[in-house]
């Protein structure tokens, strides 16, 4: 048995304090009956609704942010024995990556066993922003900037670039580091974007996902998301 406000907060619906306000103000029902006392305890079988919406109870969801190294696949297992993102996380729970990064792409990936949140993050209508830093074999010119500002046709669909910035240029090596923010989840989309401008992506890393950044995580390191970070992600839905 757990306190109602705790179960609501753990579900990712809102904070513990807001859950308490909702309870006191008669927004919460347990098994169809309004409950407005804070000490009320519920069990796994109780159905909790807030303003008529049933919350998904969760006492054991897990959320991780991994800095994925190169040569790792975004999968839970691999037939040919390559390293998988889940191999980095010390848990007995069956978690999986939210979306994909290519085998050679590094950077920020979320892993969880929370299917509701994974669906929210992957649904195109929710426009989850992702920032990538690409090292390309060349230096962007005015014509490229125009294309990036206008959007680029890829596989018969326009890709809108929400933000881009040239971070640095190495004239000697003829390479650049370009930061792009997009809200699409199509496979290999950043590589295709630069290919369509006739550049190869030599290195690619995802530095930001929604409001989450890699901070000081080294390649292969991970951390758990805090409940307020999970709540913020839920708000994207
Ligand atoms: N776009 C790509 O091309 N590759 C990734 O891994 C992610 C986005």
Outline:
By secondary structure, the protein is α+β, with helices and mostly antiparallel strands. The chain has helices at residues 4-10, 16-24, 115-122, 142-150, 189-196, 227-234; strands at residues 2-3, 28-30, 33-34, 41-42, 48-50, 53-54, 63-68, 96-97, 106-112, 130-136, 152-154, 157-159, 163-170, 175-182, 201-209, 212-213, 222-224. The chain is 21% helix and 30% strand.
Q: How would you sum up this structure, described in words?
A:
- The mean pLDDT is 93.
- Strands 7, 8, 9, 10, 13, 14, 15, 16 and 17 form a 9-stranded mixed sheet that branches. The chain has a 4-stranded antiparallel sheet with strand order 3-2-5-6.
- Helix 1 crosses helix 2 (16-24).
- With 237 residues, the chain is an alpha+beta fold.
- It has 3 domains: 2-54, Structural Genomics Hypothetical 15.5 Kd Protein In mrcA-pckA Intergenic Region, Chain A, CATH 3.10.290.10; 63-124 and 212-234, 2-Layer Sandwich (Alpha-Beta Plaits); 129-209, Alpha-Beta Plaits (2-Layer Sandwich).
- A hairpin with a 2-residue loop joins strand 5 (48-50) and strand 6.
- The protein contains 6 helices and 17 strands.
- The structure holds uracil.
- Residues 101-102, 105, 188-191, 204 line the site of uracil.
